[in-house]
Design goal:
Blueprint: E1 4-9, E2 14-21, E3 26-34, H1 35-43, E4 51-56, H2 72-99, E5 102-106, E6 115-116, E7 119-120, H3 122-132, H4 140-154
Parallel strand pairs: 1-4, 4-5
Antiparallel strand pairs: 1-2, 2-3, 6-7
Helix pairs in contact: 3-4
């Protein structure tokens, strides 16, 4: 079993990262990093052999046609951003694997009332705070990374 479980929510330029130390039973990192700095920041805490990375992989979702109601330009902009986000995640995954990390692709988890229209709700923020003990300000990508690790501790995602 790996000592560290790392949740990553990849994005185009910055990705949310959360690292849980199973031995110490505590969070050792929760922050968003520029993608080009992310691997160096993880390596400051753990080596690849002691960590399991759970990477949110939006490309595992079925194609969505939710853009039918939007205008063509809006639809194209959303599609472009989704494609860029997925490409960033896939590139990040390959870079982590090249570094020697074991990376498991995780289908985006259903968050129900915790998230609405892509943003964490007050209920969702409270859930993360109560279940992690983290009270500092964090962005939604970091919350997503924390959520991946939280859920992986409750049920087998890997």
């Amino acid at each position: 079993m790996h000592r560290f479980v790392i949740g990553i929510d990849p994005d185009i330029s910055k990705s949310g990262v959360a690292i849980w130390d199973r031995e110490m039973k505590r969070w050792v990192l929760w922050k968003a990093f520029a993608n080009e700095d992310l691997i160096d920041e993880i390596l400051k805490i753990c080596d690849p052999s002691s960590a399991l990375i759970l990477l949110e992989a939006g490309w595992l979702n079925k194609k969505s046609n939710y853009r039918k109601t939007a205008g063509r330009r809006v639809s194209e902009a959303i599609s472009r951003k989704v494609g860029q986000n997925q490409a960033s995640g896939q590139l990040l995954m390959r870079m982590l694997e090249k570094q020697g990390f074991i990376v498991k692709e995780i289908k985006p988890l259903v968050k129900g009332v915790l998230k609405r229209d892509g943003s964490w709700t007050v209920t969702g923020r409270k859930f993360i705070e109560e279940n992690t003990g983290i009270k500092s300000r964090i962005n939604d990508e970091v919350r997503d990374a924390l959520f991946i690790v939280l859920i992986s501790n409750q049920r087998a995602l890997f």
